[in-house]
Specification:
single chain; alpha/beta; 6-stranded mixed beta sheet; two-stranded parallel ribbon
Length: about 325
């Protein structure tokens, strides 16, 4: 592109060749961002908010371009594609230097297209010219850690799965955990989460198969042990008799500790944790020595399966302490 085609005269030129310029160290990993908010145009007035402020939470690329610049037109679809594919690790802000020349002038940009990466409010890296897609991807990977971005995306997915499970949507939670495992097959939290979902969905065999995939050095992870305890409890409940018949036995003989114990197992398997704990506590109150202190031992196994922060665990522990130490 000749200078006669450039309305800035000798101030700017179209970059036929590519040059990488460095302003500092690599940027920190980005937080997850919705795809629709990744690319925008900015103005001189909006630059402070769109670039300086935004880059304090994640890297922001500023693409300086002009309508008359041929290489700019080549770069635009490439950089937009790569930014979108980066999944929120960076944002792209485009600035038309015909309409807003001040920022480019302050940065000493003499040739376009020019892409400058900002992090923590400062320019940290950049390039000039229309790079091929592979080089643009390398540039983004350099300024925004791919692992950090993936980790943020995985954590976001795990949070979503936890919320889905808490809302009772085990199928949705299982789908999210499966998606995480497609990216990281040995992710312990996802394996344990998927196993828990499968247990609640009644697929014990598949839950066991999932837990078998946990690496040997992660078998002691609290979430894995909780899932394994939950499988064991579900196995025990599956071997018990009819809960209606057990309730009838208790109605006829409230001192039938075995019937009460078996009913506690059923109640736990159907999610009635408080009621299950109360039945075991009732056995302990009536006969602490029954079945070699079996009611207390089973209650502790419930605690392992439910997790220490579960409300049923907290409530039953208080009752257990009162019973043991009063």
């Amino acid at each position: 592109m000749s200078n006669t085609d450039n309305p800035f005269g000798g101030g700017y030129s179209s970059a036929a060749a590519t040059t990488t310029v460095s302003y500092g160290g690599a940027a920190p990993a980005a937080a997850s961002t919705a795809a629709g908010a990744l690319i925008k145009d900015t103005t001189t007035a909006g630059f402070a908010a769109d670039v300086i402020a935004e880059s304090k939470s994640q890297p922001v690329l500023v693409d300086f371009w002009a309508p008359w610049c041929g290489p700019c037109k080549q770069l635009t679809p490439i950089i937009e594609k790569v930014v979108n594919a980066a999944g929120g690790r960076v944002k792209l802000v485009k600035m038309n230097i015909d309409e807003h020349p001040a920022i480019a002038g302050q940065l000493g940009i003499q040739s376009i297209p020019a892409v400058i990466a900002f992090a923590d409010g400062k320019p940290v890296d950049g390039f000039m010219g229309a790079l091929p897609e592979s080089k643009v991807k390398e540039f983004i990977d350099r300024i925004a850690s791919p692992d950090g971005g993936r980790d943020a995306a995985i954590q976001s997915a795990l949070d979503a799965a936890t919320q889905a499970a808490a809302a009772g949507d085990m199928e949705q939670a299982a789908q999210i955990y499966s998606a995480v495992l497609a990216e990281v097959p040995d992710h312990v939290a996802a394996l344990a989460g998927l196993a828990n979902c499968l247990i609640d969905l009644g697929d014990l065999d598949q839950a066991k198969a999932v837990l078998e995939q946990v690496p040997a050095n992660k078998k002691d992870d609290a979430s894995v042990r909780a899932a394994e305890a939950k499988v064991a409890l579900a196995d025990q409940a599956a071997k018990l008799g009819d809960p209606v018949a057990l309730e009838a036995k208790l109605a006829a003989n409230p001192g039938d500790h075995q019937a009460r114990f078996d009913l506690a197992m059923f109640l736990n398997a159907t999610g009635q944790r408080d009621e299950a704990a109360d039945h075991l506590l009732a056995i302990m109150k009536a006969d602490r020595t029954w079945n070699d202190d079996g009611a207390r031992k089973q209650l502790l196994q419930f605690f392992d399966a439910w997790g220490p922060a579960d409300q049923a665990s907290l409530t039953a522990r208080r009752k257990l302490s009162s019973l043991l130490f009063s």
